Amino acid sequence: MSLFKKMFSKDKKENLDKGLEKTKSSFFDKMSKAVAGKSKVDDEVLDDLEDVLISSDVGVATTIKIINRIEERVARDKYLGTDELNKILREEIAALMSESESGEAANIQLPDVKPYVIMVVGVNGVGKTTTIGKLAHQFKSAGKKVVLGAADTFRAAAIDQLQIWADRTDVPIIKQKMGSDPASVAFDTVQSAVKMDADVVLIDTAGRLHNKVNLMNELTKVKRVMQKVIPNAPHEVLLVLDGSTGQNAFEQAKQFTAATEVTSLAVTKLDGTAKGGVVIGISDQFKIPVKYIGVGEGVEDLQVFNKYEFVDSFFKQ
Ligand SMILES: Nc1nc2c(ncn2[C@@H]2O[C@H](COP(=O)(O)OP(=O)(O)OP(=O)(O)O)[C@@H](O)[C@H]2O)c(=O)[nH]1
Ligand SMILES: [Mg+2]
């Protein structure tokens, strides 16, 4: 059964269109300025298009790929009108994204592993806890038994915040007091999950420690300790990135994936930002799939990322 298809289909498109509004209006504004007074795609239009893509946070490497593709088309069709530019850009971005490996995993099913352990990582404030709350809700709505683990013990508020999501979504939470060993919380959580016959475990982790080395060591320890209960845990390490930080999100993805094993990405806060183009760059540049996108603060505002739907929504005016 395609669990995710079912649980995310409702109003998904509308939500995505709304979430990308700012990105789109800023992008199309810039585009129309780039082609103003021009009827033909020439070098100057291409230069301007390059600027538009870079300033929309698509990233330099992906922008260059896109421009090269459009250049090839310009060379092929002697005359390319600026009125066709949107359509062509859309086709080339869609083609580019379908070449990246990050596509096929978009419509995942919950694997046949029980309990399936997802460890959620990322720097502070990116939306880890919120994403866990949203996921808990979605899994639960799909009839799955969910357990949360409050392994961000660095701040008291972090535990309280996860507790709020546990109450809101009516799922059990395993926690200890602030300052306790995160690995011990994670151990307790997976052990309880096995006892409760849970389907999914969501482990919250700290984004802020005294330094980066400490943080990475702690994540490694959390993983190792969970493996005493479930040898393959965590089955998924989900890195959460704040899309509204644009290129910064990109840098974080680079640094985090270099320092620890990450198996999937979530890009949050795409609503209320004009930097949504960063998702195009991230899914082109990283081998790790973008699995979820956050398009609001509400419990329903998390979507399984589908690059075709994304490009579709991006270019729908
Ligand atoms: N608009 C919007 N806000 C979001 C989204 N996801 C999270 N937020 C907000 O971002 C803020 C930080 O979210 P948290 O979930 O606390 O982030 P965190 O990564 O757990 O932060 P720490 O626990 O401090 O490391 C909160 O105010 C959330 O409501 C999103 O998709 N859209
Ligand atoms: Mg948190």
From TrEMBL:
Chain residues that bind GTP: 122-129, 204-208, 268-271
Q: In its UniProt record, which GO terms are filed under biological process? A: SRP-dependent cotranslational protein targeting to membrane
- Membrane-related topology note: Peripheral membrane protein
Q: Which InterPro entries match?
A: AAA+_ATPase, P-loop_NTPase, Signal_recog_particl_SRP54_hlx, SR_rcpt_FtsY, SRP/SRP_N, SRP54_GTPase_dom, SRP54_N_sf
- Where is it found, in Gene Ontology cellular component terms? cytoplasm; plasma membrane
- Gene3D superfamilies linked to this entry: P-loop containing nucleotide triphosphate hydrolases, Signal recognition particle SRP54, nucleotide-binding domain
Domain named SRP54-type proteins GTP-binding is located at: 289-302
Record keywords, A-Z: Cell membrane, Cytoplasm, GTP-binding, Hydrolase, Membrane, Nucleotide-binding, Receptor
Annotated NCBIfam families: ftsY
Family affiliation: Belongs to the GTP-binding SRP family. FtsY subfamily.
Name of the protein in its database record: Signal recognition particle receptor FtsY
Organism, per UniProt?
A: Salegentibacter flavus
Q: What is the lineage of its organism?
A: Bacteria, Pseudomonadati, Bacteroidota, Flavobacteriia, Flavobacteriales
The gene it comes from is ftsY
